What we know:
The chain has helices at residues 2-14, 21-30, 37-46, 54-68. The chain contains four helices and no strands. The protein has a domain at 19-68. The chain is mostly helical and 77 residues long. The longest helix has 15 residues, at 54-68.
Amino acid sequence: MIELLQTLLTSLISFGTIYYNYDVNDKILRTLPPKWRAQDTSLSASKGLEKMSLKELVGILIFHKYILQGGEKKSKV
């Protein structure tokens, strides 16, 4: 999905339409399911969506998904 979005943004830029980081990041966060609302709120408040790149946002969301799924199970040594 992110690759398709990146392709669309690149195409729009070639036609002269400009989308700012905040607009793109905000649209992505608004499409997330309700269980992600806490992550949406914390990202908006702490980092500022206007300063965050699309790649950085996707990395944070992938890590959050990993945590939601239980993360890496710690083994007892």
